[in-house]
Amino acid sequence: MKFSMLFPMLALVSIAVAAEVPPPTAQIAGAVLAAPAELRDGAAVLGWDAQGGRVMLREGKNEMFCLATDPAKTAFNVACYHKELEPFMARGRELLAQKVTGAKRNEIRFKEIEDGKLPMPKAPRTLYVLTGTSFDSVSGKVQDPYLRWVIYVPFATPETTGLSTKGTEGAPWLMAPGTAGAHIMISPAKK
């Protein structure tokens, strides 16, 4: 008897969650906001389908690749990056789906790059991350927006860049120095 009641309840929850996924146009409108304005129209966008799975919403016509915000989360969080970073980012999503997080996730990806199993650009490539408390797809506005930049510079060190490895609000700094995932963080002061 309990099982027969549980199944319909789970079905209703699944339908409710699926109904919360915004239409592709709204997902695209939000996702591209992380990119520079002149690169938004041609950016590829990876978003979400009605079942909550990742799906390509729009093929790209330039070097930008954008990720729509996760509709299962309350906060707004989108990212756009150079398309040559997609194998690295896709591998990160794959590991996350396997519940591999934090330093372990990075260790695996960095090792795969070093072993030649995972492609990573040799020259600098940029990631733009835009967060907020919410997004209004009608007005196209992000509530409490915060944009930060990450410039991947594989194997860079403080000696090769002249950057500190200590994070300072509003100043660039080098994170993961000497690794395949070394990157310059630029996080403006929050308002």
Features:
191 residues, alpha+beta, 8-stranded mixed sheet, two-stranded antiparallel ribbon, 5 helices, 10 strands, 29% helix, globular, disordered N terminus
Name the average pLDDT.
90
Percentage of residues in helical conformation: 25-40%
Which runs of at least 5 residues are low in confidence (pLDDT < 50)?
1-19
How many separate domains make up the residues?
1
**Share of residues in strands:** 25-35%
The radius of gyration over CA amounts to: 19 Å
Number of helices: 5
Distance between the termini: 55 Å
Strand order of the largest sheet: 2-1-3-4-5-8-10-9
Q: What is the N-to-C succession of helices and strands? A: HHEEEEHHEEEEHEE
What's the SSE blueprint?
Elements: H1 2-19, H2 24-31, E1 44-48, E2 54-58, E3 64-67, E4 76-82, H3 86-97, H4 102-114, E5 125-132, E6 134-136, E7 141-143, E8 146-152, H5 158-161, E9 173-175, E10 183-186
Parallel strand pairs: 1-3
Antiparallel strand pairs: 1-2, 3-4, 4-5, 5-8, 6-7, 8-10, 9-10
Walk me through the structure:
With 191 residues, the chain is an alpha+beta fold. The chain is 29% helix and 26% strand. It has five helices and ten strands, in the order ααββββααββββαββ. β6 (134-136) and β7 form a beta hairpin. The N and C termini lie far apart (55 Å).
